[in-house]
Specification:
145 residues, 6-stranded parallel beta sheet, 4 helices, alpha/beta, Rossmann fold
């Protein structure tokens, strides 16, 4: 049996990145999935649309940790004041997850990852913890910058 594109699993990778670190980790995640034989659709959260609009077998979500959780409008504006591009503050993974319907992604495997500073090694909460909660997804080990 040949490994045609129709036979391959498909992943939707949605990420939020203010300064580019989470975007870099996302590229590594996408590369690993592709090397594993997965077709990947990757989208920055502003361009992601609704998860139900895509056909996928796996949802992967990545975000930076802001104030021990997913970013909020205020924390994204703080990031802009620190040098992030203003267009990256338009929306975040928190809002994208909230906009999902109650059953979108519920019966598909999912994973979440986050990036965070190394000054505080053991944060009590992190972006992946919050991203995983509404979808009951697996949380993968953090990547620090």
């Amino acid at each position: 049996m040949s490994d045609t594109p129709a036979d391959r699993p498909r992943a939707l990778v949605v990420y939020e990145s203010m300064f580019g670190c989470t975007e870099s980790v996302t590229r590594a995640v996408v590369e690993g999935l592709e090397q594993g034989g997965v077709d990947v659709v990757v989208a920055e959260v502003r361009d992601a649309g609704r998860a139900g609009e895509e056909e996928y077998d796996l949802l992967v979500a990545g975000a930076p940790t802001h104030a021990f959780s997913l970013s909020r409008p205020g924390t994204r504006q703080d990031a802009v004041r620190q040098g992030a591009r203003p267009d990256r503050a338009e929306t975040g993974l928190r809002e994208w997850i909230t906009a999902l319907g109650p059953d979108e992604g519920r019966h598909r495997p999912a994973a979440a990852f986050d990036t965070r500073v190394t000054k505080v090694r053991h944060l009590p909460k992190a972006a992946s913890t919050r991203a995983a909660r509404p979808r009951r997804v697996a949380r993968v080990s953090p990547v620090s910058r």
